Amino acid sequence: MNKFETQFTDYFSAQQAFAFWKARVGLYALLRAMNIGPDDEVVLPGYTCVMDVNPIKYVGAKPVYVDIEPVMFNMNVDLLEQAITTNTKLILAQHTYGYPCEMNAIFEIANKYNIPVVEDCCLALGSQYKNKLCGTFGKAAYFSFQWNKPFTTGLGGMVSINDKDLIEPMQDIYQQAATPGLKAQSMLKAQRMVYRTVIYPRTTAMITNLFRWMTKKGLVVGSSSCAEFMPEMAEDFLTKMGSMQVAAGTSQMNKINKNIAHRQQMAKLYDKLLSEADFDIPTIPDYMDPVLVRYPLRVSDKEKALAGAPAAGVEIGSWFECPLHPIETPMHLYDYTKGQCPEAEKACRETINLPLHPRAGEKTVRRTVAYIKQFR
Ligand SMILES: *Cc1c(COP(=O)(O)O)cnc(C)c1O
Model's pTM, two decimal places? Predict the structure, then answer.
């Protein structure tokens, strides 16, 4: 294991960790290691990222969507059992925005039908459920270090393995994975430097648009190419994490406690300021200790709130734009029928998210609330 993988294994008391080019690649490797293929069904919330669904399609399995509960945007466990069939081979527990899923209820059903659980921790690094870290419940968990995630290595993903029986099959697949080229790695490193120096909450909307445009022109290593909005795998998809990403990840892991403390502090400040502005602040069960990646908020006019943000110098996110984010996703190719998950679709229409990353301090939080409160 490299240093980053070792740090991760230690942090999560896992058996072993495997670092990949992106989280979605890690999920793909995991599905293969678990022997999930044609005719198998994978159950996941209908409020996710298409990048999460692609690997399921790549192995030939079928995604089955469960609607969400409206408070923490996680899989509604009351609807989980009816989604299970004799073909169900996996439940993906996605801890949305950093809110832990109802793990006890999920495992009650998973154990009843003898179905393995894997945790999607791409938005939840450090969150706890009943004093236990998210990522330590399932047979395995995967994490993302893409630009918008709890911390970034440019692009990057990690799979942590809790089930000993998965180590060997994962090693087999990992050996088949390519090593990223020096050019892609150097470009990522340059992007990380640009990101650190110019992206501040005030400028993010503008820079994000610039990055999108540059990605389309092939000028930067984008997190998604157009090809990834189709359920067909690119030839070079199965790729490991490169050494420069590993170095970035290691330095971020050294600061993880500070990162977590900052997010929790700023989330509390949002709670306070937003409730003073008469927003309904969700009540989180006291056995959950979430570390949010961004602060989700339902607003009266999402379109308008997003449109006005750049001019107001605030950074407002649009996750999730549709049940299989982003909006460009041709959902019918991913076995999603419009209307299938009404709570998720409603959340997509109403919910924006506010920054909590290390560069968003108290001033940013106050400015953001001052702007968003007109959209109560
Ligand atoms: C970002 C994200 C992913 C994919 O992560 P990549 O590293 O970009 O592949 C998967 N699931 C969820 C919930 C995410 O937010």
Answer: 0.93
